[in-house]
Amino acid sequence: MAEVAALVRMARIGKRYGGVRACREVDFSLGAGEVHALLGENGAGKSTLMKILSGDVTDYDGEIRINDEPVSFGGPTDAQAAGIAMIHQELDLVPGLSVADNIFLGRELRTPWRTVDRRRMDREARALLERSGVRLDPRRPVGELRVGEQQLVTIAKAISLDARVLIMDEPTSALTTSEVERLFVVIRELRRAGVGIVYISHRMEEIAQVADRATVLRNGEVVTSFDPRKLSTAEVVEAMVGRPVQTMFTTPDAATGDELLRVEDLALTPRRHRPGRRDPAGISLTVRAGEIVGLAGLLGAGRTELLETLYGVAPGGPRSGRILLQGKEIRPRGPRDALARGIGFVPEDRRASGLVLFHSILANTVLSSVPQYGRFGVVGRRRERAASVRMADRLRLKFGRLQDEVGTLSGGNQQKVVFGRMLLTAPKLLLLDEPTRGVDIGAKAEIYRLLGELAGQGLGVLLASSELPELVGVCDRVVVLRDGRDVASFSTADSGEGDLLAAAMGEGAVFEQVGGPL
Amino acid sequence: MTDVQDKPAAIAETGGGVVATLFRFQSVFGLLAVFVAAIIFSPRRDGQILFVSADNLANVVRAVSEIGIIAVGMTFVILIGGIDLSVGAVLGLAAVGSAVLMVESDWGFLPSVVVVLLIGLVFGALQGMATSMIGIQSFIVTLAGLQIARGLARIWSDGQGVAIAYGDGPDEAPESFAILGERTFGGLVPIPVLIFAVVAIAAVVFLRVSAFSRHLYAVGGNEKAARLSGVPVTRVKIAVFAVCGLLAALAGIVHAVQLNQGSPNDGIGYELDAIAAVVIGGTSLAGGRGSVAGTVAGALLLGVLNNILALNNIDSNIQLLIKGLVIVAAAALQRLRPTS
Amino acid sequence: MTDVQDKPAAIAETGGGVVATLFRFQSVFGLLAVFVAAIIFSPRRDGQILFVSADNLANVVRAVSEIGIIAVGMTFVILIGGIDLSVGAVLGLAAVGSAVLMVESDWGFLPSVVVVLLIGLVFGALQGMATSMIGIQSFIVTLAGLQIARGLARIWSDGQGVAIAYGDGPDEAPESFAILGERTFGGLVPIPVLIFAVVAIAAVVFLRVSAFSRHLYAVGGNEKAARLSGVPVTRVKIAVFAVCGLLAALAGIVHAVQLNQGSPNDGIGYELDAIAAVVIGGTSLAGGRGSVAGTVAGALLLGVLNNILALNNIDSNIQLLIKGLVIVAAAALQRLRPTS
Amino acid sequence: GTTSERTSDQPSAQGAKACKGADGKYVIGMSQANVAEPYRQRMDDDIKAAAAEVPQFEVKFADAAQDNAKQVADVENYITQQIDLLIISPNEAKPLTAVVKKAYDKGIPVLVLDRKVEGDAYTGFIGGDNVQIGTEAGKYVAEKVLPNGGTVVELKGLAGATPQAERNQGFATGIAANPKIKIIATASGDWLREKGQAQMDALLKANPKIDVVYAHNDPMAEGAYLAAKAVGREKEMKFIGIDALPIPSGGIKAVEQGRLTATFTYPTNGKEAIAAAKKLLVDCTTIDKTQTLPTRLIDKANAAAIYAEENPTG
Ligand SMILES: Nc1ncnc2c1ncn2[C@@H]1O[C@H](COP(=O)(O)OP(=O)(O)OP(=O)(O)O)[C@@H](O)[C@H]1O
Ligand SMILES: Nc1ncnc2c1ncn2[C@@H]1O[C@H](COP(=O)(O)OP(=O)(O)OP(=O)(O)O)[C@@H](O)[C@H]1O
Ligand SMILES: [Mg+2]
Ligand SMILES: [Mg+2]
């Protein structure tokens, strides 16, 4: 690798959070026009390292040099001034402001009278969004966008900074294949323009597609650096996890039981329309006991909304069609009702709808099941501890103590906590919305293994995911949604990612195989 | 406190298009309803509806002008996710200040007004610093600020209201000050109303066109995002509390001129009225969404309500009940606005 | 309002271990500091430190018992991210209620007390419904509730304080009621203090051991997550506001017995004192973190402060300044607690 | 209250034990109900001024901010401090009776000002008579202002306050002599100037003819005047207030400057209280159990003179 024109050089970077050493003695460099992938398990220290580079974290050990000049940032603004921009993992946008306002926040465009030039901001925002392949009204408040759309807005925002160094911390975790493709086009353009890009992702297939170089962190330390085109997935994963990981995906288990869930022509007309929501408009599907059924679709196909309807948290309004659980028609009235019937739900946005970030791991893990550990409304302390330790073990949760705040866990481990909470309610049917978003490959394997295990015990799973390999690898069957309807159903035994994507995009769509050798 | 049940909604000042217009309309919905009710329930004389007489309407707006001016500043503070309980006390301090400076210290009109406004500004800024730099919740900072401002006002005035008489004598205030309490445009529009209108319009325009307003919404909507985007969060907070203090002081001057005295007990409880106006106007106490236009509507709603209850000579206890219920109803109406 | 600057901190009730202990210690830190200051600055007579005399200490705690009882309920409400401004007015309503029922309606001790407590409970529950079911911010619901409760109290009592005399006569209250105001344990511990202690201990125990408390913290910490996890959010909110109303009514009974009358103007402004106690005790107004132990410490801190200022006969205006500054200082001290 | 100690058999509280003569040093505690009312602030000021003339006296002040419970605590703190004499202007009678008795039983002489407490466990009461003031105001309106009858609007004090009820009741008695006088409207101004102004705005609107505005205190009368002036009707009617505080923002000045037609003094009793304390502590004599101070009519004729008389040094 040519180390000649290092744009950024970080040397012996160290950072502690209390007892946790997020980074130790990390050396990292980035050249102009280079896409440098940063890999590692959840909690390996990737985000921390990049927050240091982008001026978000200011108390650290070690040295940063930009163009061979030592720098020390007092905050994100300093880093931006030095040409460093970052797309944060936890989409940090202002919900009440419009897309354009968010993109230009802190550096608004002005008219000659020093007032905000709204029209120009809208125009430029639209152009930026189109460049990343999104059609979005820049005047819409960000709060009403889908997670995926928000992610695209943060990308547009980062691109608009015209940075020399662009850090992308899991920019695609909520995107589906076609949006990812568009992003890669943009990345290649930027690379050609000499921008140095740090690319963090847990989607292994993406690394080989875009990265020129990859560095693996484990427990805050660099373990290896390599050319991603030359290593196999298994080797990369072994470097990340520190031991060989065998099969990524459980082989679909054909031995399924009785019909657990049947959805017949479900449609919902919300009383109050919310822009951007795609409510079920005629969906039929079934899930058998022991079966893992995938839900595929493009951004906004209505997967999330279907799961929300099944869990009873969709907006009110007349609905048609039927939902049958074990042959009996149900009308889920809300989470309590659904949980009581044995339906569990893992929402897609763990920070906003999954966790109380500043409460302990323990409290978050047992939140849905706490009454069952005691009697007379008193918490059974020992039993709840035992239950959450058991669950942490089972999910291989990486944590310090059960009392630690859940917000200090790495993203993937946070996801496991939400997952564990639902498992503790002993559901019959598990509704999962992007359950592995931001989860590292090792932990994903754990989750898949667990899903297989649970399915083996007769649990039915409905899994919405934007990761095609995951759907194909984990599910027995995949139902494809488009515009709130089911348009196709595939058995994963005899169809691949290409079939799913073609169905998701609709007829006539030309599908170009993504993913090279990895 | 975060009332998390608050559903997301478009904000009027920054969102464009139909939704925003609709929302703006919604924020005056309660006001319209109360206005119509006022006409219906207004006593009549010689076939004339007393409520809608020009004179009475001027009175209604004059009576809300102080709360209205304060509420504009409060809107800013609430938009950044804070609250300011000290405004009533700062009003009292400013009223005392103008009276003491002009009457007892025999200062001129302009220096007195400027110094009083500065006092409000600095007091607000100090509170902003305590909350943004030390990180104490603004509720508690301004609760303390309330006591401090009240204490200062009492000490400054020796605990007694300072009467304002006009003239050139040593114990008299300049006549120019009295003008602030008079009426203009053919005796129709009281100057306090004019001041309120100017403040409100300036605030609305400011929120629509300035870059600072984007920062303000950002700080209230997602402080971390704001910080990461390079918004000077601390500076925004200090500025907002300073402006709120300044406006409270302005209201205090208006108060003093209207009542011909500055008393340390002026403005007790005004903070709650101002907050009620803001919230009825559709601004979320969680920060990040709301508008000054809504606040003005909210203040007028409260004013119309007070006026119609008084015109009908409703028993003061029943008035309390009715006001409570109308406030809840107005807030409930707000919930009907289109959500995203 | 969300003061987003609030740094994360371990929560006392659900976390265990060293951090939690440290935090609990921190929440009484300010109290200790003020206590020591009180001893130092206490006037002496015949070599005796007046502040620490048993009588004076009993007075201090008795004086805070009402605010303390209210503040316990307020802690619950603030923990779920709400606020209750109506507590002072509900106290007044309950004081009037006990006096009217026992004296004018000639009811017995038990039925009167039960009915008054029920009134508080129902009033609180109604407010809880308005905020959780209609979704109006609790600040505004309880601001309206304040006016309604005050209006009801005025109407019920004809606007006059209702004096309580004891005896068996028609216009007399049962002697058993008077006991609530007396002292026990050798004339050392006033019963109101005992009631406060029982309420506080019950609340602390409840928050530590009950499953419900997990729900309560979760609702305040992240309402959406709580709802999706199957927490009965609406029910939790209604219950919490109901308990807060109940405790305010209990405080009202204690108030009436101590003052031998129930007046509709009782308890004006108590809500702010209670909130100050809660926040000084380290509970975040954003909800989801805090403890009753801290609140008790906060209430005692305010009580000791009031007492020592009074014992030294500090001018009441200067008192306002000092109290304001101490509240800010105490809150600033809270910021020093260990963060994650 | 504490009911355990009912031993008021020692007559020492009448001043005998407390009296150490002219050589003694005395700490007097003054418990004020609410200094936010100008009348009560003036009472404190009067006490301060009068006590400055008595070298043996040191007066401490406490403000209960209109809260009965706070005032109870204030008195208890005075007891803890072992003061030599208590002056109290109670917020309300009943709630303070017990604690006043407690002080009295401990041998501390108690002077009660303005509002009585119940029972007789105090040394002396000095106050005005609100019913009588109301009656005087009523008579003045009936005989001097509107001998031929007319319309009156009444601005009342805070609902629930005793003086409010008494000033209302007295006035009704006073005007009863002239049946041609009609009270056409009443409204509650909560003792506040701005509230009086706002209420008057509406009253003016609703009533085309008003001859007299009777307000339960001067600030509300001033507020009403401002409201009438704003619509140019201040000359059509007369404004009558109560309290006549001899301060720049008080009623006497307002009468002198022609805004109010008349006001009636409601004595603060501050001077009289210190005089009584001096009798008890320094002179070792006794005082009358009840001392009611008469009210005085202030009108244009005597306003300036009385203002000067009440503020001797300026
Ligand atoms: N604010 C914080 N307070 C305490 N600990 C933290 C904080 N932020 C990160 N950590 C800890 O530092 C370590 C590294 O976290 P980091 O977020 O850098 O991991 P990551 O590699 O980005 O993981 P992921 O892939 O899940 O995003 C983890 O153990 C995490 O728990
Ligand atoms: N305008 C809106 N108002 C309120 N909630 C919305 C709105 N749009 C989307 N949501 C909610 O936001 C969440 C995120 O949508 P999301 O980004 O998951 O779409 P997606 O997952 O990409 O597409 P799919 O519909 O296929 O799940 C969902 O819970 C959805 O119900
Ligand atoms: Mg990360
Ligand atoms: Mg989705």
UniProtKB/TrEMBL annotation, chain A:
Q: Where in the cell is it found?
A: Cell membrane
Q: What is this protein called?
A: Ribose transport system ATP-binding protein
Q: Which GO terms describe its molecular function?
A: ATP binding; ATP hydrolysis activity
* Membrane association type: Peripheral membrane protein
Q: What is the lineage of its organism?
A: Bacteria, Bacillati, Actinomycetota, Actinomycetes, Propionibacteriales
Keyword annotations from UniProtKB, A to Z: ATP-binding, Cell membrane, Membrane, Nucleotide-binding, Repeat, Sugar transport, Translocase, Transport
> Got a GO cellular component term for this one?
plasma membrane
Query: InterPro entries of this UniProt entry?
Result: AAA+_ATPase, ABC_carbohydrate_import_ATPase, ABC_transporter-like_ATP-bd, ABC_transporter-like_CS, P-loop_NTPase
Species assigned in the record:
Kribbella caucasensis
Q: What Pfam family is a match, any one?
A: ABC_tran
**SUPFAM superfamilies linked:** P-loop containing nucleoside triphosphate hydrolases
Annotated ABC transporter domain ranges read 8-244, 261-508
From TrEMBL, chains B, C:
Q: How does it sit in the membrane?
A: Multi-pass membrane protein
Q: What is the lineage of its organism?
A: Bacteria, Bacillati, Actinomycetota, Actinomycetes, Propionibacteriales
- Keywords (A to Z) from UniProt: Cell membrane, Membrane, Transmembrane, Transmembrane helix
Record Pfam families: BPD_transp_2
Q: What is its main location?
A: membrane
Its source organism is Kribbella caucasensis
State where the protein is found.
Cell membrane
**Any coiled-coil regions, as ranges:** none
Q: Name one GO molecular function term.
A: transmembrane transporter activity
Show the GO cellular component annotation of the record.
Answer: plasma membrane
Please give the name of this protein. Ribose transport system permease protein
Lineage: superkingdom: Bacteria
The yes or no answer to whether the keyword Transmembrane is present is yes
Q: List, alphabetically, the InterPro entries matched.
A: ABC_transp_permease
Transmembrane spans: 23-42, 63-96, 108-126, 133-153, 185-207, 236-256, 292-312
